[in-house]
């Protein structure tokens, strides 16, 4: 499975995507992560990818064609031809992820759905956003899913993109070792404990709940459901 990040800040993404479980998945070639920088697809000598917004307002807006060309590069010419001709079923093809505070909240169900794609392109906006014409053009090349990741507004799309790569990767076969390690596919609780049974801190004992020490799986599952 390939993730393609359209971003001005590859180094900030790669630091996270090279670490821990996602980094191991990359090393074991369970996923591949590529980057395309919109600055590489502009015709000015400064690598300028932003302009003032029509109608006024604060800040700058990322230009449409710099983003579109970066996505085209991620797809590859051969891939674009296949997409346009309809030679690949969407469930095994490619999809573009567009981030917006007004988009659908990203869920575990969405993460499961994205595992069916071969190529997931994540467009990381900056400044005051991306010229809306980029989204209109990209819709002619591939399906677009528009998501919000959490209710906060971020400086750029990199943090939501990393969250999606992480959430999708951990669902791929073999990434976590066993399917039961995906918490939302089993009875899980936000409250977890490990040895020792009792911790002494400033004269007070903090103990593991008795039910977890019984080995009675039905009672443990009931406790987890309650939590």
TrEMBL record:
One Pfam family per UniProt: tRNA_m1G_MT
Domain tRNA methyltransferase TRMD/TRM10-type span(s) in chain numbering: 1-227
Subcellular location: Cytoplasm
GO biological process: tRNA N1-guanine methylation
Record SUPFAM superfamilies: alpha/beta knot
E.C. no: 2.1.1.228
Enzyme class (EC, first level): transferase
Residues that coordinate or bind S-adenosyl-L-methionine: 125
Catalysed reactions listed for this entry: guanosine(37) in tRNA + S-adenosyl-L-methionine = N(1)-methylguanosine(37) in tRNA + S-adenosyl-L-homocysteine + H(+)
Primary localisation category: cytoplasm
Similarity comment: family membership: Belongs to the RNA methyltransferase TrmD family.
Cited function: Specifically methylates guanosine-37 in various tRNAs.
Oligomer and partners: Homodimer.
Protein name: tRNA (guanine-N(1)-)-methyltransferase
């Amino acid at each position: 499975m390939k993730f393609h990040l359209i971003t001005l800040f590859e180094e900030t993404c790669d630091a996270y995507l090279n670490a821990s479980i996602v980094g191991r998945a990359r090393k074991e070639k369970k996923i591949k992560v590529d980057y395309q920088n919109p600055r590489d697809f502009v015709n000015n000598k400064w690598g300028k990818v932003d302009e003032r917004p029509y109608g006024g307002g604060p800040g700058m807006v990322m230009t449409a064609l710099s983003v579109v060309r970066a996505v085209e590069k991620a797809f590859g010419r051969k891939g674009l031809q296949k997409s346009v001709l309809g030679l690949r079923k969407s469930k095994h093809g490619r999809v573009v992820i567009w981030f917006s505070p007004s988009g659908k909240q990203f869920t575990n169900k969405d993460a499961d759905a994205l595992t069916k794609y071969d190529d997931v392109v994540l467009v990381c906006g900056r400044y005051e956003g991306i010229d809306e014409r980029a989204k209109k053009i990209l819709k002619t090349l591939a399906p677009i899913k528009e998501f919000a990741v959490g209710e906060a507004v971020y400086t750029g799309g990199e943090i939501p993109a990393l969250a999606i790569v992480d959430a999708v990767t951990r669902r791929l076969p073999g990434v976590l070792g066993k399917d039961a390690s995906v918490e939302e596919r089993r009875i899980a609780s936000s409250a977890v404990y490990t040895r020792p049974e009792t911790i002494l801190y400033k004269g007070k004992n903090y103990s593991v709940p008795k039910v977890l020490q019984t080995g009675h799986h039905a009672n443990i599952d009931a406790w987890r459901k309650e939590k």
